[in-house]
TrEMBL record:
CDD domains: nicotinamidase. Pathway: Cofactor biosynthesis; nicotinate biosynthesis; nicotinate from nicotinamide: step 1/1. Its EC number is 3.5.1.19. SUPFAM superfamilies: Isochorismatase-like hydrolases. One of its GO terms (biological process) is pyridine nucleotide biosynthetic process. Belongs to the isochorismatase family. Residues 7-199 form the Isochorismatase-like domain. One of its GO terms (molecular function) is metal ion binding. InterPro entries: Isochorismatase-like_dom, Isochorismatase-like_sf, Isochorismatase_Nicotinamidase. This is Nicotinamidase. Keywords: Hydrolase, Metal-binding, Pyridine nucleotide biosynthesis. It holds the Pfam family Isochorismatase. It comes from Gemmobacter megaterium.
Length: 202
């Protein structure tokens, strides 16, 4: 058992990020058994759920003339455009059917405001609007987190970098993560996480 001050945070293991989904991450579903097993070692387990309205600004379909994986400038800076995914209440937004959800004490939904994306579990993409997760963790006496899930180079990495900046001890279990890898994003995210003092394990 890990110390009571450690939390497992499971990022976005949802149907749309698994093979057959709208924004499928290669082998995304293969992490589920390892994530499920890890849950038994942590007294605090948190799940995140990407949770967008259909009008979401990160969807290419909401930008006439743009295609998925193009970049646009939004009020807070550059935003990659995605195929519509994880629409609130849809099958794609549901957790992978084999993911254990009973051990989770908190499910944090993110990306629910139409004008702003949220890769990180801590802050929306303006890097300033909090999700409330920091307060929850501090209130529970959590000082270290282990991150697993999808995708390594977006929601996992943004969460890891924010957590490190906030002063939490951060480990990313790479064997329980899979990446989108868009234009070198995986290598860039690994470099940034290492530079920020995030422990990368596999
Ligand atoms: C994610 C792109 C868009 C992720 C979420 O979970 O990594 N990536 N929305
Ligand atoms: Zn999303």
């Amino acid at each position: 058992m890990r110390p009571a001050t450690d939390a497992l945070i499971v990022i976005d293991i949802q149907n749309d990020f698994c093979p057959g989904g709208a924004l499928a991450v290669a082998e995304g579903d293969t992490v589920v058994p390892r994530v499920n097993a890890l849950m038994d070692a942590f007294s605090t387990v948190i799940l995140t759920q990407d949770w967008h309205p259909s009008s979401h600004a990160s969807f290419a379909a909401n930008h006439p003339g743009k295609a998925p994986f193009d970049t646009v400038e939004l009020s807070y800076g550059a935003q990659t455009l995605w195929p519509a995914h994880c629409v609130q209440g849809s099958h794609g937004a549901a957790f992978h059917p084999d993911l254990r959800t009973d051990p989770a004490q908190l499910v944090i939904r993110k990306g629910f405001r139409s004008g702003i994306d949220s890769y990180s579990a801590f802050f929306e993409n303006d890097r300033a609007t909090p999700t409330g997760l920091e307060g929850y963790l501090r209130n529970r006496g959590i000082t270290a987190i282990t991150l697993v899930g999808l995708a390594t180079d977006f929601c996992v990495a943004f969460s890891a970098l924010d957590a490190a900046r906030l002063g939490f001890g951060v480990t990313v279990d790479l064997a329980a993560c899979r990446a989108i890898d868009l234009d070198g994003s995986l290598a860039n995210s690994l470099r940034a996480m290492r530079a920020a003092g995030v422990a990368l394990e596999d």
